[in-house]
Write a structure and sequence with these properties.
The protein is of the alpha/beta class. Helix content is 54%, strand content 7%. The protein has two domains: 10-132, Rossmann fold (3-Layer(aba) Sandwich); 153-327, Hypothetical protein af1432. The chain has helices at 18-30, 41-49, 67-75, 94-103, 115-152, 159-173, 178-190, 200-203, 211-218, 220-228, 238-243, 264-278, 290-302, 308-322; strands spanning 10-14, 34-38, 55-59, 85-89, 107-110. A five-stranded parallel β-sheet has the order 2-1-3-4-5, with helices on both faces.
């Protein structure tokens, strides 16, 4: 006996056979799902682009684009890649299944479809998607909290966004893998999330911090790591959060790491962080010109604070190509 398990989730059924579509619609609707039908590949893509599909059941053999092509389109788009895709096929060759796997399919069903197998697969994949959606919501909350820190100080407006862009640009020039580009994009936004635990009187103090205030401020990297640690998807972001205030000579915090012991992603972020801080207006000074900011950073690198090779790469590969000719550092 079938137990209704759907809660109105929107399931796309794409099949050029009307009889197959009607059968799938009947089975899924009876189990509590909202079915969105499509008679061909282009109609399926249109429904996917609407942004309201929770799971896609795709017939492999459809007028172009085929189910394989639609699946690949879904899985290569950052906005849709988490939508579970089940390929429906009467093809039983290993080659077809391998092609489906390479396109990113989450599961396969062989025609004619078994009712109980269909409902079990749909239910299981939608449960997994629910967990993924909850993870996305948790990440969204973290990003929103990070923006509240930025919003407290009018002088730091846009700081997180610029850090993300600068850091990813530098990482691309260095040939870092995609997972570290994603980590730097996220790290640019939430590297200072631990400042939520820092009192505003310290956070917004215009003058130098005393010893106790500095001790409290320096805890923000550890607190930030602790806030984000439960999210497994942030495992590559944690070293950025914890170590972006370390220094090349070991005089930074919280762990006094030295040289290449400091994670590369943290060194990348700190270079872009310092540059943005120097070239942005602050209550106690105007924004510095690019050339002056870089001169200060070079002097600090010679003093042993920053990774000089990264600073050089940032200047020549990221900054100079983006600057108007007359404003480039000499």
């Amino acid at each position: 006996m079938s137990i209704s398990r759907g809660h109105g989730e929107r399931v796309l059924v794409a099949d050029d056979s009307e009889a197959n579509r009607e059968l799938l619609i009947e089975l899924l609707t009876a189990d509590g799902y909202h079915v969105v039908p499509a008679a061909n590949g282009s109609g399926a893509l249109e429904q996917i682009r609407s942004g309201s599909i929770d799971l896609a059941l795709l017939d492999v053999v459809m007028p172009r684009p085929s189910g394989f092509e639609i699946c690949q389109s879904i899985k290569t788009n950052a906005q849709t890649r988490l939508i579970p895709v089940v390929l429906l096929t009467s093809l039983n060759s290993d080659g077809d299944r391998i092609r489906g796997i390479m396109c990113g399919a989450d599961d396969f069903l062989t025609k004619p479809v078994n009712k109980h197998e269909l409902l079990a697969r749909v239910y299981s994949l939608l449960r997994l998607k629910q967990f993924t959606d909850e993870l996305d919501n948790a990440e969204s909350v973290l990003f929103s909290l990070a923006l509240t820190i930025e919003a407290k100080d009018p002088y730091t407006e846009g700081h997180c966004d610029r850090l993300s862009k600068y850091s990813v640009a530098l990482a691309k020039k260095l040939g870092l893998p995609d997972e570290l580009l994603i980590a730097l994009r996220r790290g640019g936004s939430i590297h200072d999330i631990g400042k939520l635990a820092v009192p505003e009187r310290i956070l917004l103090k215009p003058g130098p911090l005393d010893a106790e205030e500095r001790r409290i401020m320096e805890q923000h990297t550890i607190i930030g790591e602790r806030i984000c640690a439960p999210l497994r998807s942030f495992r590559n972001v944690l070293p950025i959060i914890r170590h972006h205030h370390e220094k090349w000579d070991g005089s930074g915090y919280p762990d006094g790491l030295k040289g290449e012991a400091i994670p590369l992603t943290a060194r990348i972020l700190q270079i872009t962080d310092i540059y943005d801080a120097l070239t942005t207006a602050r209550p106690y000074r105007h924004a510095l010109p690019v050339a002056e900011a870089l001169a200060i950073m070079r002097a600090e690198a010679r003093r042993g604070w920053w990774d000089e090779s990264l600073l050089n790469e940032f200047e020549t590969s990221v900054l100079e190509p983006a600057l108007p000719v007359g404003s480039r550092a000499s």
